[in-house]
Structures are given as structure tokens and as C-alpha cells.
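Look over this today:
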Amino acid sequence: MDPVPGEIDRHAVIPPEWDCLAAARQFQKLLRTKKLFIVPALLFSLAYCFALPALTGLAPQVMAAKTFGDTNLAYVSAPFRVFRSLVNRLAHSGGSIGTEALDVNR
């Protein structure tokens, strides 16, 4: 969608400005900090994502362990996967689930 007349396009950065921003010490620190978060988060997410199916297939006795009452570990860990997916969706959408259609500046 075209920008509103009279509104500044805050996403338009001309190349010389970008080169200056990319060379800035603060931006380089931001990239390092970003990498320090993303790499462990990705590794944890991958391990968590594959843990339930792998443990269910490779170690069924572990997943059959009773946690409380007649509930086993597999039944406890499965809902947490749904919760983690919801948290990921909220984190990546900025908390705007279902409001994308209302964004008139897209």
C-alpha cells in the first residue's frame, strides 16, 4: 500500500545512510547481542521440538513414567509444546495475533 500523503516513510533508508549505520559500533554490538540470543534459542527450540517424538520412539519407558496420578510424561510435555508455539507466535508477531487485517499501512 502506498504511504499516506505527507507521512514520512520511516522504512526508506538511502544506501549511504545504511553504510554509516552498519559500520557504527552500537550496531555491531547489537548484532553480536542478537547472535548471542538467537543461536542458543534456536538450539533449544530444535532440541525441544524433536525431544517428544524422539523420546517417544526411542525411549518409551521414559515417556511412560508417571508424573502425577495416571498421567505420564508424554501427556504432560505435549501441552507445553502448544504453549511454546503460542509464545513463539506472540513473540514473532509483536503480540498482534489476528490484527494483521486491520493494519492499513501494509
Summary: The first strand starts at residue 66 and ends at 68. Residues 15-102 form one domain. The two ends are 6 Å apart (CA to CA). The chain is about 65% helix and 5% strand.
